[in-house]
Amino acid sequence: MTTQPSQNSDQTKETFVSVNSSLSLSRMGCGTWAWGNRFLWGYDQTMDLDLQQVFNLAVSRGVILFDTGDSYGTGTLKGRSETLLGKFTQEYQGPNQDKICIATKLAAYPWRWTRHSMVEAGKASAQRLGRNIDLVQMHWPTANYFPWQEWPLLDGLGDLYEQGLVKGVGLSNYGPQRLKQIVKKFAERDIPIVTLQIQYSLLSTYPVVELGVKEVCDELGVQLIAYSPLALGLLTGKYQENGKVPRGFRGLFFRQMLPKIRPLLQGLEDIATQRQKTMAQVAINWCICKGFIPIPGAKNYQQMEQNLGAMGWRLSEGEVMELDKLTQKIDKQMVQNPFQTK
C-alpha cells in the first residue's frame, strides 16, 4: 500500500491512499448513513439539495471517498443513499471529477444466503448508482449467529470482483481472527481484501485495543476505515449535559453518555482551543493519526466544511498520547456493533 502526497510538499497534507493498482481512496471520506435514514437521522427528501452541496464541496476539496450501503434507506426509500450518490456523481462537474470513489456495503440479510444473491445485490446497487461500484464491502459478518450463511455471501463478493464489476473488495465489522481466515481463502482466488471498516473513535477503541486488529491489518496490507469517528455526534462539542440533545434514540443515549465522558470532552476542548480547531476536527484528526481513514457524515455544507478542517495537519505525538490516556480513564459505554467478530 502506498501513500500519494498531494502537490504540497508538506507530508501532513497527503491526499490519497492507493489500496490497489486501480483504486485510490482519500485520506478522509464521507459517510452517508444519514442520507436516507429516517429513524436515527431524521432524513427527509427536502434535505437533498443540502446533501448535493455536501457532495460537491467534498469532491472539489479532495474528499472523493463516499461510503454507503444498500440498507441505507428502507421501505419507499430503499437504497436512497445509493440513488442520491448516483445522481450527484452524474451531475457533478469540477475538480477530482474522475477520482470519485463510491464504496458500498451489501447487507447480509436473512434472505440472502447464496453467492448469486450477493452478485445480484451488487448489480442492483450499481443500477441505483448508475455506475459500477468501486469498493464493495460485506456490511457485517454472520459468524456470530448464522455461520453457514457467511462464506456463500463472501464468495459472491469475490465473484463481483472476478467479473470486473468492482475494483476492490473490503469487509466491515470483522476482527483479526476472522479477517485472517478470509484473507487466506480469498488469496486462493487471487483476490486481495483491501479494506476493513470498523466502529472506531475516541469512545470506541475496542477492536484495536482489545482485539489488536490494527497490527493484523498492517501485517496483511489492509487499510482500516473508521466509521462513526464522532461517536454519533457525541464528540462534536455541540451537545451539553443540561442542554439540547437530538430527538429520539440519540437524545436518550446522549443523556446517559454525556456525564460519563466529561473528562474526555474537556480534553478535546482544551486541545481544540490551543489548535484553533473545533472538537470535531481534533477527534477526526486523531483517527487519521492512528492510520485510519475516517468517514464522518455530513448533512449540510457547514458540517462538511468543518470536517474538511480536520485535514492538512496532524496532532503532535504528545496530543495523541493525552487523548489516548483520556479514553482509558473514562467509563466507556459506547454501544459496540453486536456483529463485530474477533
Automatic annotation (TrEMBL):
Domain (NADP-dependent oxidoreductase) ranges: 27-326
Superkingdom of origin organism: Bacteria
A GO term, aspect molecular function: oxidoreductase activity
Keywords annotated in UniProt: Oxidoreductase
CC per GO annotation: cytoplasm
Keyword Ribonucleoprotein attributed: no
InterPro entries, alphabetized: AKR, Aldo-Keto_reductase, Aldo/ket_reductase_CS, NAD(P)_OxRdtase_dom_sf, NADP_OxRdtase_dom
SUPFAM superfamilies in UniProt: NAD(P)-linked oxidoreductase (SSF51430)
UniProt keyword annotation of Oxidoreductase present: yes
PROSITE patterns: ALDOKETO_REDUCTASE_2
Protein name, entry field: NADP-dependent oxidoreductase domain-containing protein
